[in-house]
Amino acid sequence: MADVRILRAKVITHATGRLLSLETCREHLEIVPIDGDSDNESHPDDQLILGMLDAAVAHAEQFTGLSLLVRTWEVAMDEFPADGFELPRPPFIELLSFSAVNDSDGELDPSTYLVDDYGTPEQPVIVRATSTWPVVTKAPNTIKLRYRAGYQAEEDPDSDAPPLPRSLRAALLLVLGHLYENREDSVEKALASIPNGAEALMRPLRVRLGMA
Fold it and tell me: Global pTM?
């Protein structure tokens, strides 16, 4: 398809929760909780581990261009591209709104566009379904589209988000293990030397970022 753009996105609703459970992290790190209250077993490193998991996820998102955690994103344009545009920060879950400043000054008629996910369901292309896009007021960010994107958290199996790919799960655990083994270093220093295997697992899932 000609003239398909990739747009930058900004976060509207930040993520809550974590992709992997504390139990999964402990198991990978071979950490045994301290015996005590059976309903509240803990380990002195629990908060450290969760912080390192957050750092591992942030690194993976930066490296891949994906939205690993479920968030609401928004992209904005001054004008419609000739053909269509890809939504950044996949995996796409659902379209929430598509609006433009025009005569009706509101939501676009769903009959005027199509979410084309043929072959790429996790990063669809928004294309026009009519001969032309609607006429809009020429102004910065006059066209806005909001959508949800991200992967299913381990502790939220009923989520409508797609499951976390096994390769990403393995990569996160590799990075977590590396950070924990090098916990005397700063997170920044430890991330500068993460295992090659982690990036090898993530590299096939990298997406383009920015305008194309």
Answer: 0.87
